[in-house]
Amino acid sequence: MYSQRAIILSAIVAGCGVSAAPAYGAVQSADRPESEGHRWSAEDSISVRYVTRDFDTPFNFWPSSQQFVWSPDRRHFVVLTHRGDLGDDSNIFELRIFSADAVRASTSGIPAPYRLITRRAYSSLRSPFTGLRWSDDGTSIYFLAPPEHPTPDERLQITSVYSVNLATGQTSRVTPEGMDVDEFYQAGNAIAFRRKLDDPDASIPSYPAEWMRRQPSGAMNRDRWPYPSPVVERYVQRVGGTPRRVEGRFVGSWQISRDGRYGISRLAIERRGHPRLVDMETGQLVPTFAPEATRDWNNNIVFAYWSGSGRHVIVGNIKNPVSGDAAGANVIASYDLANQHWQVIEDISTGPDRDPVIWSGWAEPDNFVILRQRGQNAPHGVRYRFRGDAWVGEAMRGAIDLDRFRNPAPAPLQLAIEEGPAQAPQIVATVEGRRIGLLPEDPVVLNNSLAPPRAFTFRDAVGATHTASVTLPAEYRQGRRVPVVVQASNYLADRFLPDGVMETAYATQGLAARGIGVIQMDTSGPAAASGGREGEVFRDMVEAAVNALVVQGIADPSRIGLTGFSRSCYHTRLALTHPGAVHFAAAVCADGYTGDYNSYLLDLAADIGSDTVDDNYGGAFWRNKSSWLERETTFNLDRITTPTLFSTNYFWRLGAPGYDEGSVRWIGGLRANRVPFDYLFFPSGSHNLQRPRERQFMLNAVVDWYAFWLKDEAPHDAALAERWRGLASPRQEASPHGGQPVARR
């Protein structure tokens, strides 16, 4: 069951204690039907199919405008799905390219995609279809992808730009082999891309010694700690040609002419990004094009639009390029590549006598529109057309439909993802009242029985009502209490997420299959709005939800577990060191933020920002020592009695592998105070685990941890069972550091 995909660290220490607590609220329905079919397992959680909502971050389940990507002519659209394969530890991504006409003509069954492109990802961080975009003519699709084979060290993986020819279905690499590309832009037959290189100066200290590298503020340079920054180079390339490096520090996106001859990006000078015109054949700047930006890149940045003919490029948020007045107005101006002349189109400076610009762009080829509106007044605009050798404006007449400009080409089909907590996602096209499913049924869902979540409400400490869900074991019967684990922080009640919204540590179905109920709830909003008491608000909401199930006779108050991941690890740690009415019998803190004193000092050293830590403890440490000593978690580890499983996923930190300092500090405190713990280390894991064997290991470890401490069930792995029995053996002597021995439940 357990492989070398993770490393386990533990100490042989004592058990834990719990106590009961009052409750409020009510479960809407505690009854559930008999389970049918095979019970859900960790392997099912990995091999089930998901619809990818964001091509750049495929394991992000929040809504995204990128979930359906239409071709420019609206004739085709693409959808992406993914599932894990434990056999070779890859994630299989399927890019389905549908013809809108074929879907519309479908009368029965599931219409076949026009093209089906399958790629495997052996990466913890990189999707095989990142940055997906259509060519201007709709005949090709471009995307970033890592190689389709595992590498000994994922940090050495190279990502390239690829294209798919729609007519043939053939995939080909566009950028040269060996160039690691992390960003690209494409138009016409040209691309602009950013190449990432390792910086030897950031990773190898100078011999025999070096002075600390400082930022201009005097703080420690972040390139040394904690995230080494790669060197980046920018290139332009005609498709099929040779990449040309572009000198200078360019920031932001590129706008490439439709013929692929020129591109515009922003050259960083001090705190402004000044637009520059680059020859895509040579990589050289066009010397006659050098306007100055009026805003820095934290405000309204420069924008650029190419005309359909490629002769003109219209640029906004620049100083007047005709008068050369450095203190002049903020304008939109046009540059004519035929004669290298500028023409100011409009002054867009803000002021009481000028309505703000709300939209600008091409309404038709060589037909530029600028729209303005103040408050709730009707929008008004000017349409510019190129006549002779100049742009001529004409006021637009009649009512202006803003949606027509903002969404000029509506999709010919209505597409939606339909899913539910126990309903696998399906992509549905609606055509003249007919509903057409586009995905075949998932055999993993058909052949397995999901334990469905049931909604319930509870009131928090200030009387506010919240909704959460509880997933109960198949064998649950009314009136019989069960152990319950709380998965708090984020919760999407209407999504098909069998184990929860996070792949790291959330294990709803596996826990239910082992006879443990699971509460899922969203504490992120109230915690963020807590005014410096996010940990306490989290704890109180969790306890209120637990108490609601205790009152209903569902939850056993002596067998409650709590899982924290990322930010909610800090909240979980506070709930363990500063418990209220509920004392947790087991906990998991997965790859999380500590929010402790040492983190505070490190943030100050690197000028990362310690305001959030300050707020959590009443202000800066040296002016609020009593509050810190009372509320900070590591200062209060002598209060904890909860066996805790920690984990660290290291690859996302981009540094040399090593145990996480925050977890190690807690391990030291738990050892000193005779509290059981264990520690999982994923040396190649991303923050939200993605590789199948990593996820399988984590799911099984979490389920086994809670079954051991909440149900007295030993893991099937004999070595692990013996390891944890050593943790549970009570120690007779008190700790010399102040902790008292505690026994297992």
> Nearest-angstrom radius of gyration?
29 Å
Number of helices: 15
**Proper CATH architecture of the domain at 7-45 and 445-596 and 633-728:** 3-Layer(aba) Sandwich
Which overall shape is indicated by the principal axes computed on the Cα atoms?
A: globular
Indicate the proportion of strand residues. 25-35%
Distance between termini? 26 Å
Number of strands: 39
| Helix vs. strand class | alpha+beta
Description:
The chain is α+β, with helices and mostly antiparallel strands and 745 residues long. The chain has a domain at 7-45 and 445-596 and 633-728: 3-Layer(aba) Sandwich (Rossmann fold). It contains 15 helices and 39 strands. Helix 8 (534-551) crosses helix 9. It is globular and about 85 Å long. The two termini are 26 Å apart.
Question: What is the fold's blueprint, element by element?
Answer:
Blueprint: E1 7-11, E2 26-27, E3 38-39, H1 42-47, E4 50-51, E5 69-70, E6 76-85, E7 90-99, H2 100-105, E8 115-121, E9 130-134, E10 140-145, E11 160-165, E12 171-173, E13 181-187, E14 190-197, H3 200-203, E15 231-238, E16 244-246, E17 250-256, E18 262-269, E19 272-279, E20 303-306, E21 312-319, E22 330-336, E23 341-347, E24 357-364, E25 367-372, E26 380-387, E27 390-395, H4 402-406, E28 414-420, E29 423-431, E30 434-437, H5 443-446, E31 448-449, E32 453-459, E33 465-471, E34 482-487, H6 508-513, E35 517-520, H7 524-528, H8 534-551, E36 555-565, H9 567-577, E37 586-590, H10 597-606, H11 611-616, H12 625-631, E38 644-649, H13 661-672, E39 677-682, H14 692-711, H15 718-728
Parallel strand pairs: 3-31, 34-35, 34-36, 36-37, 37-38, 38-39
Antiparallel strand pairs: 1-39, 2-32, 4-6, 5-6, 6-7, 7-8, 9-10, 10-11, 11-12, 13-14, 14-15, 15-16, 17-18, 18-19, 20-21, 21-22, 22-23, 24-25, 25-26, 26-27, 28-29, 29-30, 32-33, 33-35
